[in-house]
Amino acid sequence: MAESDNIIVETAEKIFADLADPQTINNDRKDSWQAPLWQALSESGLTLSWVPDDLGGSGASLADGFALLNAAGRFAVAVPLAETMLAGWLLTQAKITSPEGEMTVLPASPRDRITLDANGALSGRARGVPFAKAAKHFAVLAHGKDGASIALVDAAKARIEAGLNVGYDHSDTVTLDKVQPVAIKPAPKGFDQTNLMLMGGVARSLQIAGALESMLDISVRYSNERVAFEKKISKFQAVQHNLARLAGESAAALAAATSAADAIANAKSFDDEVYLEAASAKIRCAEAAEKGGAIAHQVHGAIGFTMEHILHRYSLRALAWRDDFGSESHWAVELGKLVASRGADELWPLVASR
Amino acid sequence: MTAALRFDPIRLPEKCEQLRKEVRAFLAEEIAAGTFDPHKPNREDIDAPEFSRRVGAKGWLGMTWPKKYGGQERSFLERYVVTEEMRVANAPTRRFFVADRQSGPVLLKYAPEHIKMDILPRICRGEICFAIGMSEPNSGSDLFAAKTRATKTDGGYLINGTKIWTSSAHIADYMIAIFRTSPPTKENRRHGLTQFLVKMKQPGIQVNPIGQITGQYEFNEVVFTDFFVPDDHVLGEVDGAWKQATSELAYERSGPERFLETYYVLTELVRAVGPNPDTRSAEGIGRLVAQLHTMRRMSVSVAGMLEAGKEPVVEASIVKDIGTVWEQQLPHRVRDLAAFVEETATNRETLERQLDFAIKTAPKLTIQGGTTEVLRGIIARGLGLR
Ligand SMILES: Cc1cc2nc3c(=O)[nH]c(=O)nc-3n(C[C@H](O)[C@H](O)[C@H](O)COP(=O)(O)OP(=O)(O)OC[C@H]3O[C@@H](n4cnc5c(N)ncnc54)[C@H](O)[C@@H]3O)c2cc1C
After folding, report:
1. What stretch of H or E contains B111?
2. Count of CA atoms in the C-beta half-sphere (13 A) of B65
3. Which partner from A76, A105, B275, B381 sits 20 to 30 angstroms from A162, CA to CA?
4. CB A8 within 8 A of CB A70
5. What is the ipTM of this complex?
6. Which chain A residues are closer than 8 Å to B278 by Cβ?
């Protein structure tokens, strides 16, 4: 599936194929692949794709960065690439230069809040922060008396309780207790936590879609190899129909995610239409992760339920990514409220506006 | 391989949005004039010949066809916008929709010039109605089991046999049908069917209405007895209809009509729930809107592929599979969510009446135009499994 016409995606796919092959990674119980992979990604500038040159990054377009995240999803990449990209993007909103090394963003849930006090110190707790344990810096969105600010925080200044998500990746609780940031600036006018959550949600949607593309790939391949009752299982109509449904879920996830990415890349602001696109993508991709992942496991039988097999690298990560930056339940409630407040006769105009 | 399943995020160009405004304004006028009631899907006025003519006069039929046949040479994306606005407004499109979507394009491709010059402009003016004669009593999903015979005679063919489930045959002026011109061969069981243009309302054709579980009469049994079809009404290759049938499918299967047939219950639910929904209603509506939005983006994307001259058969099948399963579940989900709607909601009665009808309609949605099972077979073939 490497036929991208995009130099950034091509570079990334080559690095992933060389250093993050899911089977090799899966066999490596000591995670010794992580450091070389991270080094290759950061040396090629991919980790700071969304940061312009003058702020320390490589200045790729939003669209290219989203395509890169979709590719990362296809390899179920388990280093803080998406997180560092998002952190760089957030810092860039306030023209703060991005440092080198792993980063992640706070908060990662719409329910958590970081506050800024009169002395310029940050306090608050953020749960489910992806890769906080691995991060050297946090990009933080904080709220103070004068509105939202964006800050760069040294991770060593925070208290981190390590946790694991359903996909065995770090998902940690970060507590800031009157922490002085390395840098802090007001967020641009109108920029709020919802924008950050929508952006993070679209990043996760593209990763989920990528994982589903790979689940479809390996499931089709497996069904053409596995023999039962003296036939390849791909010849059974029930199996074919399951795979057709998986193809549908994968296609729907990719369509929703790429449409939302395209909307953000071309929008002047985070308006209602971007909201519709981004919230829909997170909802639909999460639903696809659930339905599609179940089918991929069904097709693989017992072998797919083992740690030795690579399927869980995609399926569990796709399920875990549902929780970051607002779950599908969260966005469904918010989108439902938006639709209701605009009224019945505005529903179709909203949908048709895209 | 999965690369084939990319649905690029096509955006509708500005001229489509201009057109959308015109269509909305036109429909609002028609509603105000009492042509149809957008809140009443189960109306009796489903066949509205005067409305068809007015749509034709607007230039919204045969929009993509050459001007010399009465068309407008506009894009598939513009046609897409007209279709979805008609559908969402619940406009009475029965009389013209099949001709516009399917029959016209078949004639454009396979009919002789004098027939195109005669019929296509009348479709564009909204004057004539078409039916599709594929299914037979023992041949539905398995189209190639069709038996209705076309026997060669002087200057044409004699037709004997029965078509069934033929939508709109009772009001149709023409039917495009497949008949058996030779037996299947050993090598190819699809061989031997030919596509014909049939002029309805002639001796030798008997149309028997069949009631549906909604209480409506929309499809029919059509019995042919020594019915004569002239030679110049053969469409395309004799015995080769199977080659022609598949390219029609992408048009039939991916349009907005494939997920919007029960859409009206969603609007009505939003109305009933009001501006301050409880969490349960808000979540339910949010999910349904996200699903709808995603399907629509996929469907628009397929329209873009058609515009680019591609034949997205697998993609169209995916849209129809997901879309029809969704529109089938929609009334049931809305019913769930409406369980706690206040007694005082002003549109409560409308919602209940709509739900009653949508629930009765739902079973057909995954059958008409190719069953879910058949579609999944096509998708599986696209995945290289068969
Ligand atoms: C409202 C409505 C309008 C219609 N309008 C028209 C029309 O205008 N013109 C027209 O020609 N037809 C029309 N049809 C007919 C429609 O195209 C057929 O009903 C459809 O193709 C299925 O055929 P069938 O009803 O004979 O069912 P069958 O083919 O008998 O199928 C019964 C069940 O068996 C399943 N099945 C059959 N074969 C397979 C297989 N190989 N693998 C797995 N499952 C299989 C089917 O999926 C279905 O679930 C209409 C149908 C409806 C409901």
Report:
1. none
2. 28
3. A76
4. no
5. 0.95
6. none
